[in-house]
Each structure stands twice: as structure tokens, then as C-alpha cells.
Amino acid sequence: MRGFLLVGHGTLPEAFKYSLSMIVGDVSNVSTICLQPDQGKEDLKKKMQEMSDSFRDYEKVFVFADLLGGSPANAAVMEFLPQERYGLISGMNLPMLLTSILGPDTDLSAVLKAGRSGIQDMRKALDNPVSAVDEEKKTGIMEIRNVRIDARGIHGQVATAWVPKLGVNRIMVIDDLAVKDEMQKMALKMAKPNHIKLSILSTRKAAERLQEPGAYEGERLLVLIQRVETLKALAGHGYLFKEVNLGNVPARPGTTAYRKTVSLLPEEAAIIRELIAKGTYFTAQMVPNDNPDDFNSIIDK
Fold first, then answer.
1. pTM as predicted
2. Do 275 and 240 touch, CB atoms closer than 8 A?
3. CA distance to 169, 228, 256, 264, per residue, from 270 (Å)
4. Closest CA to 191 of 217, 164, 153
């Protein structure tokens, strides 16, 4: 069992913890120590000694500091360096935190690599998006691991939580608007993990490809749909998914909240009811660590 401690200036550690909760859900094993302007070395020392007691049951503890040489980092070194089970990392950022929390091991080199890879000149990254490499040997039929409605498309939660959890090697984005928007396509290419292949398809093309014998042979797909009405368009082209996860459908004027992250317009709710009647099973699940809710039984409550 692993614990995590975020230390830094002001409220930065708490802000990182809140961001992590948005992406991974449960962060009960993440603690924070915040250095305030009116506090000094003794305050930090006391907080870290108290925190050390709370970590007794953890086999490994990662301590992330915001600034190498800063007071929080220095205090962490003084308190935790003599104990081998503590890993000490400076330059805290979200990619390294996510890799550490979601990863199956405690390899510090992988954590540091993730932290560095997340630092990019985004203008250059948009101009030269990295393509997937190391093509896998294709055997077997296409497997759709998850179909997710998410208004944000490919974002941190998808790239760092859902992709590893599902074990997919291709993301398929189905959207009739995105396929015509060059900027949106570039942004999607930049947001995907480097080792993951990407398809951005219209509803018509997606319906054709998903029913085409031999298409995406041996690949494991995460299908991302940004708008509920896309499901209706796909049905109009003759394709229905067996199961759809409602991940993030934000509140807008005229919507009804069914779950914290699922708000539907009347016409969107009507589409879902129509597809339920045709055999599609809907769930609501924001992050992989959440239990999926049976949305078929929720929508008419």
C-alpha cells in the first residue's frame, strides 16, 4: 500500500490534491502540507513529524515538493531522507503525480519521465503531433473496451486514468463537428498519449468502419463521443452500441441533473430513452475507481 504527501508553498498542495480528485476520484491516501507566509522551519518540522506518524502503515510513501531547494523540500529531506521507504521528488506537476498514483509500481524513473514529458511548447506540439509507434502485431477481432460520452473529448482523465485502466491501443472519436474542425483535430492529436493510435470519424464513417469485417483487427478501442445526439446520428446510420458510459455531460441552460457529472436536455434524455428501448445499456461513471451506476434505472426516477 502506498501513501502520497504533497508539500509546497501557499495552497498549491491542496490545489494539486483537488485536481487529482477530479481525475482519479478517491484521494484518501494523499496528504498535504502547506507552508503559509507566517510560518517557518519549525512549523514545517512539526507538521512533517505528525505526518510521519500517520504514514506508519504504508509500505512506500512518495513525497512531492513544489520547488527544489525551497523550504518545504528542504524540510522533507531533513525528515524523510533517512527512511528508505520514502521517495523524494521535487518539481511537482500533475503528470508525475498521476503516474505515481495510478501506476502499478514504485519506479521513480517512470514518475520523473512522466513529469518531464508533460512539459511541452504547445504551439510546436500542435504543429507536429506525435504519432503512435511500435505497431503491435494484429491478431484477433476488434474489441470495443468502452464507449464514453464525454463533452471534453480527450483530456487528462481519459489519457491518464481510462486508457491505462482499459488497456486500449486506439481511441476513436466520433463527432460530425470535430471531423470538420482542423484546430479541434490538432488538439485531440496533441492530447492523446503518444503510444495510442487515434481515429477521428464522422458518424457515417464510424458506422461503416465499426461494421466492416476486419476493421481495426486485433485492436482494443476506447470510443469517445462528445455529444449525446451523436448516438442518434449513429443509430440513423444503422449502428447501435451495446453499452454506453455517460462520463461527463455538463450542465447547460435547460438541463436536468441526473448525476453530479450528468445533466441532460429534454431532447438528450429522449434520445437515451429511445436507445434504451432499442437495447442499449447506459451507465454513469466519471472515473475508473467509481462504481458504474445503472443509468437505465435512473433516467426515469
1. 0.77
2. yes
3. 33, 10, 12, 9
4. 153
Contact present, 149 and 225 (Cβ < 8 Å): yes
Q: For all residues of the chain together, what is the average pLDDT? A: 90
In tens, the pLDDT along 70-110 reads 999 999 999 999 999 999 999 999 999 998 888 766 678 88
Question: CB within 8 A of 241, min separation 6: which ones?
Answer: 144, 147, 223, 231, 234, 280
Give the strand pairing for 281-284 and 293-294. antiparallel
Cell 435547460 found at:
254
Q: Are residues 216 and 209 in contact, defined by beta-carbon separation less than 8 angstroms?
A: yes
Q: Are residues 231 and 274 in the same domain?
A: yes
How many beta carbons lie within 10 A of that of residue 83, not counting itself? 10
CA–CA distance, 111 with 119 (Å, rounded to integer)? 13
- Give the CA distances from residue 60 to residues 4, 29, 88, 100, 238, in Å, rounded to whole numbers and listed in that order: 9, 11, 11, 11, 52
Which of the 8 DSSP states describes residue 264? E
Of the candidates 149, 119, 136, the one whose C-alpha atom is nearest the C-alpha of residue 232 is 149
- CATH code of 155's domain: 3.40.35.10
The per-residue pLDDT for range 209-236, each reduced to its tens digit, is 999 999 999 999 999 999 999 999 999 9
> Which letter does DSSP use for residue 159 in this model?
I
Considering the domain architecture, whether residues 112 and 152 belong to the same structural domain is answered as no
Separation of CA 276 from chain center? 27
**Spatial contact of 221 and 145, defined as CB atoms under 8 Å apart:** yes
Strand partners, 144: 221
Statement to judge: residues 191 and 243 lie in one domain: yes
Among 273, 265, 267, CA closest to 295: 273
Which secondary structure element, helix H or strand E, spans residue 150, and what is its range? strand 143-150
